[in-house]
Amino acid sequence: MVLAPARHPNVFLVVLGAAVLLACQPATPPAPPVPEALRRDLELTEPQARYLQTLADAADTHPADPAAQKASGMAHMRFTLSGVLSLQSRAEQDLEAAFALDPNDPELTRSLGRFYNMRAVAGDDTKAERQVEVYRALLGDRLPEALTSREFVAWSFAGLGKVLSEKNQGRMLAALDTVGDLEDALKQRTQASPEDIELQALAGNFAFFFAGNVPFGRKERVEAAVAYFEQVRRRWSELRPGAHDPEHCPNTYENFMFELAEGHTVLGNRDAARGLYEELETIREPVTRAKEQIAYVARERLRNLAAYEGEYELMPPWPSDVGNCVVCHAYSSDVPLTSLHSVEPIELDDIPTQAMAKPVLLELVLPDAVRELVEQRCVPCHRPGGQAAAEGDFSNDEGIQAHARAIVRRVTAGEMPPTGALPSDEAAILEHWLEGATASSPTSSPSPPNDRSRKRG
Questions:
Q1: First-last CA distance in the chain
Q2: Which of 96, 137, 214, 418 would you call most buried, defined as having the most Cβ atoms within 10 angstroms of its Cβ?
Q3: In Å, how far from its chain's centre is CA 250?
């Protein structure tokens, strides 16, 4: 990753800011235990636990087999993103082992980088150096302007890893220089590609993150973030389908709009903030736990709106700061409240739930007919470097299973493939496979596994 030379327009301000931002501390110390009232995991069912144990045993038995390590790591990653956060360490362990054996697998490096991104956004810098290493393997030393949009997203998170790595080394001025370089690159990229709505969201998230972690220029960063997310709001329908798929990413809109509402609140834009919070009070289908929590907190914000105006403790906004990927993807898992700043105390059990559970497919092997059909009809575009690579890589079994419901839904709706609807006999192959896999999944019932401990609405 190539960055610009150092810049110090106001050395005293930069040094002071670096000292406050980084607190002259080494790497982040171990976090204290989190109360269950603020965070808890989904519980695995027995079939899910057996499925993961089978893959973990294979990885442990064959430590030199990158495919075994990757299969276990990717499966544990999917469950982690569904809300079983206790599996993150095992997912990282196996993905790291696979990366050590095969650092040239782009799907693997992106997946591992995703976990490091989650750590970094939550303020965990313990794997910052690894984050830089993984993205260097993916991107090399190319300049940001030479990267595709998807690669630029990876480059941006590599920059965040570099910030945290420099902090860990006590190189505070260098860390602030990297922050400035990253912000400049994001601004230039969004200006050069105004049609790319995901870039606007990326830039907005980074602006909010730095507004909460850099002690100067906070208002300007919040203003920039609000401008970025207003673009996202106005042009939501232009976002690529996979980013707001109602099954794969059911909570993305609510997550982004809550961030925008918090930004307006900090800036004192009361009417704009109120309108967003009121919109978020209504939970859209599918009903998920994240939407319920956001709606509950939005009501609390409305009751205390005057108290929150100008309050920079709202930065960076919850819930993105505790696991953006989990927030966007999860159905029935709780979003941790550990970083939520609120006037009224809020605990998980205060929030009633009717959340749906998302089926998790447990088949270890795809039927040959399904694999052959996907290879023929989908993989020409949905493969590394393919035209639709950003929508999912279907060149392997893991990728097909991870997107199974979206594949079948879009095929049966006649949206895919783009050349025209599949013949009915081919569509039926996919439908029957999904029906069988879903029927075998214990998570297909409407009640989430840990509902007994929650109030019902």
A1: 50
A2: 214
A3: 12
- Cα-based distances in Å from 340 to 115, 223, 301: 21, 21, 12
Cα(282)–Cα(289) distance, integer angstroms: 13
CA distance 446 to 451: 10
pTM passes above 0.90: no
DSSP 44-67: PPHHHHHHHHHHHHHHHH-TT-HH
Integer CA distances (angstroms), 306 to 152, 276, 343, in order: 39, 15, 11
Of the candidates 108, 102, 37, 35, the residue with the CA atom closest to the CA atom of residue 71: 108
Residue 208 CA to residue 229 CA, distance in Å, equals 10
Tens of pLDDT, residue by residue over 152-178, are 999 999 999 999 999 999 999 999 999
* Tokens (6 digits) for 332: 């029935």
Question: DSSP per residue over 236-252, as a string?
Answer: GGGS-GGGG-TTTSTTH
Contacts of 387 (CB under 8 A, 6+ apart): 381
